Amino acid sequence: MSGPESIPPARKGKKAAGERHKIVVNSLSDWSNLRRKEGHDTSAMKRPGRLVFRLFSAAIRDWRLIDDGDRILVGVSGGKDSLLLAWLLADVKARAPVHYDLSAVTIDLGLGQDFSEVETFLSSLGIPYHVEETRIAEIVRSYPTRKTACSLCANLRRGALYAYASKTGFNKVALGHHLDDAIETLFLNMFYQGNLRCFHPRTYLSRTGVTIIRPLVYIEESDVQTAAKRLELPVVPAECPVAGKTRRQTMKELTATISSIFPGVRGNLRRVLKRIWSSQAEGGAQDALETSEDL
Asked: Which option is the CATH number for 15-39+48-292: 3.40.47.10, 3.20.20.100, 3.40.50.620, 3.30.70.580?
């Protein structure tokens, strides 16, 4: 794409926007009341913080991630990233100058995870939610090597997600990749593939006709973690048997080491990534994450 574009102007009046805001606030209050009954401190409805909102809005504006009339499906794994993404999209939906439909889906790998709290949380935000059951875990277990299993699992998860979005009429899928994910992907491609590539904030998949958007891509993981704690998001524990044992984890540790030597390096790397993204097309069907996530 040629570069950042502005979001189209609003089509509806202030009254309609105010009504939508009231609905979201009421539903968030319902969530707060539920958490209070469960023993959580909800003396005031917490917010993610100004920095998170600013970077989230900047990514949407810079790469035109949301257009008027979009039907957006949030891929919710149950982790902090995707839950924060759902919260932010629901919040912005009430105030944005564009109008879009918002739903969420979880691709259940068959690991026996409980997504009931996620369902309650998303319902409180007014987000329709579906759990798509699969046999991905069973299929992956039959593969002997960790590398092959990770690659297969990632491909099957993405395939199931994009296929569900396509068959149910969603034109965009929102994923919770943050800045650290982008940096790690860049490093994976640099050190293992010998190229300067990274997934794009906005990627059109020609086979399915679905556009992938990543509104958290400017936000550091530490800020995502802080926001998740402030909002008391109902994070589902990860069940992956090889979590923390991949090359991506090595890149995560490398990023932390570099950051300890050069404070603020993530901000500099964000600027590097923006230059790379600006020099690329819109991502096309070749999403660099899909070629490097299993490394």
From this structure: 3.40.50.620
